[in-house]
Every structure is written in C-alpha cells, then in structure tokens.
C-alpha cells in the first residue's frame, strides 16, 4: 500500500528526514513513532502531500505520488494533529463539506454522511454546532471528515491527544474495526505506547531523521537487545544461590531485595519454565513467580534514550 524509497527532506543545511525507506502492506495497521525532532511528522506531511520531498519517492497503492497526486488523494484519508473543522457548522454540515471536496453530491453524499455519523457515533448530535462539542467529540468529527471518501490508506497523526478516556477508547476501537471489517490500511502515530501496542502489527521508530528500527514487537525487541523481567519470591536466598542464579543461561542480570530476586532474561534464548527449574536446582524454594514482558516503551527508551511522553510535540 505504501512504499517510501530514500525519502529525504532538507531545509537548507538541516536534514529533517534522511533517506528513509519503508514498506507498509495492504490491510495492516502500522505505527510510526519518534521523539521530538525525529522527523516523524515531516514524513507524514510528505506522505499526505502537504510537503514535497527534497529527494526520494513515495508510492501509494501502486501509484507515484510525484506523478499522480490527484489520484492518490482520492484513496487517502488524513487526520491531522490539529482539529481541522468549521466550528460554526454542525457535524453533519462539516462532513457534507469535506465529502463534497471528494466529488460526492446529492443522495450519494447524504448517504455517506449518515454512514460516517454512524461510524463516529454522533448521529444524535448531527445538527449540533462543532463549537459546542467536547474535545473528544471534535476529534471524532475530524476522523469522520477523513473517512468521507472511504480511503484505502488512512493516516492518523496523534488523534487522541488531550481527549477524555471514553472518546479515546472509541477512536481506538473505530480504527481497529475499520481495519478488520473494511480492510483499511492504517498508519498511526501516537505519544501513547499502549495505543500502538494495542493497534499495530508493526512499527517503525524514527530518531534524528532516520529509521533506527522497524518490525514487529518481537523484532524490535531483538534489535534493541531488550530483555524481559522475571521476578521470583523465594525462601532460602543466600549469596551462593544468587551467584548460581546469575550464571544460569538466559539470565543477564539479577538484583536481590529481601527474599525477592529480579532477573533480566532473554525469552528468545530459553523457555522461562526451564529457567525456573534451574533456579530451583540452586536449592531455594520458589514461593511466587511473575513474568513481565518487555513492552514497547522500554524498547523505545533503549533505542532512543528518551521516553515518548518526554517528547510531546514530536516533529
């Protein structure tokens, strides 16, 4: 659905995006992450035709963006970071306006407005002015406007910033439903790692204009050298047992606090149950065991040295 080849954006001597290449398959939800200044939003702006690349190519649904921009716009829907609506108009009239930009009119336009109002669950508020809506409701209308042309490629740039939990959950479920039931390809950027983990099969992490890692969560974990954590409550912990535990294959680090030992383990190398059996052989009695898989936040931190929430306003 999307292929970027050596995509570059320069502003004078400053390179915002540095020869990145990327493929997004049809029907997948793909996450694009990056700390402040990473080049993420610049990349999204080039894909969505807002900015022209300095170099490189963008291909969407088999078409060249540089050669066929009008055709590409017909198959793409963009939800920008900022609310892009007419506040004095109703939800229905906003959707009708954006639908008309895609060439819809008459009964076809009215039908699509009704369909989108159902999707964003604002049919009862259809005649209410957008200026009277909460932040979450405005976000939902913003999403609705981008759905009027039934896009094949749907790009959402931080769509849940500053909204209530109920609207946030609705947006996440809407994205998942559009992908599963309509086969819509989605590119999703967010400052909330749990959203990306919930929605995306794969993700790319950008930093300083380059893609530093790309793949599934397991592939990102492997590229980052991230480890899972095994926490064991035990009886009989002593220095000799702890030293033996630290030598167990698959255990990279171990820290002791009272009768609890926390270990960094590589699940890719060994089965966790095998590690637990090796711990028992040291002579200690396991009273409880808890496994924490490395999450996307820890992988991101390891790769960039920054937490994503410390980098609000990423570009």
TrEMBL record:
* Listed GO MF terms: ATP binding; ATP hydrolysis activity
**Keywords carried by this UniProt record:** ATP-binding, Nucleotide-binding
In Pfam terms, one family for this protein is ABC_tran
Q: Which PANTHER family match?
A: LINEARMYCIN RESISTANCE ATP-BINDING PROTEIN LNRL (PTHR43582)
Q: Which GO terms describe its biological process?
A: daunorubicin transport; doxorubicin transport
What topology does the record note for this protein and the membrane? Peripheral membrane protein
Superkingdom per UniProt:
Bacteria
Mind telling me which InterPro entries this protein's record contains? Answer: AAA+_ATPase, ABC_transporter-like_ATP-bd, ABC_transporter-like_CS, DrrA, P-loop_NTPase
UniProt similarity note: Belongs to the ABC transporter superfamily. Drug exporter-1 (DrugE1) (TC 3.A.1.105) family.
What SUPFAM superfamilies does the database record attribute to this sequence? P-loop containing nucleoside triphosphate hydrolases
The keyword Endoplasmic reticulum is assigned to this record: no
Q: Main location per UniProt?
A: membrane
Name of the protein in its database record: ABC transporter ATP-binding protein
Question: A GO CC term?
Answer: plasma membrane
Q: What residue stretches are annotated with the ABC transporter domain?
A: 2-233
Q: Where in the cell is it found?
A: Cell membrane
What is the native source organism of this protein? Bacillus siamensis
């Amino acid at each position: 659905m999307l292929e970027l080849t050596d995509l570059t954006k320069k502003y004078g001597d400053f390179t915002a995006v540095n020869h990145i290449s990327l493929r997004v398959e049809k029907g997948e939800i793909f996450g694009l992450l990056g700390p402040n200044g990473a080049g993420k939003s610049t990349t999204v702006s080039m894909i969505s035709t807002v900015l022209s690349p300095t170099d490189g190519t963008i291909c969407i649904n088999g078409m060249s963006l540089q050669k066929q921009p009008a055709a590409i716009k017909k198959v793409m829907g963009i939800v920008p970071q900022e609310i892009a609506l007419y506040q004095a108009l109703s939800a229905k009239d906003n959707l009708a306006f954006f639908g008309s930009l895609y060439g819809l009119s008459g009964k076809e336009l009215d039908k699509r407005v009704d369909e989108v109002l159902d999707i964003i669950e604002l049919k009862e508020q259809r005649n209410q002015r957008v200026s009277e809506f909460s932040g979450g409701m405005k976000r939902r209308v913003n999403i609705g406007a981008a759905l009027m042309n039934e896009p094949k490629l749907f790009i959402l740039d931080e769509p849940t910033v500053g909204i209530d939990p109920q609207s946030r959950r609705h947006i996440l479920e809407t994205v998942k439903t559009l992908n599963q039931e309509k086969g819509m390809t989605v590119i999703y950027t967010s400052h909330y790692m749990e959203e990306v983990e919930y929605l995306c099969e794969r993700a790319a992490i950008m930093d300083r204009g380059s893609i530093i890692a790309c793949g599934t969560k397991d592939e990102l974990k492997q590229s980052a050298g991230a480890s899972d954590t095994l926490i064991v409550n035990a009886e009989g912990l002593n220095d000799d047992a702890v030293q033996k535990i630290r030598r167990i294959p698959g255990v990279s680090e171990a820290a002791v606090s009272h009768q609890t030992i926390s270990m960094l383990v590589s699940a890719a190398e060994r089965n966790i149950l095998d590690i637990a059996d090796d711990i028992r052989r040291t002579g200690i009695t396991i009273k409880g065991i808890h496994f924490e898989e490395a999450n996307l936040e820890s992988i991101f931190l390891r790769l960039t040295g920054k937490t994503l929430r410390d980098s609000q306003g990423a570009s």
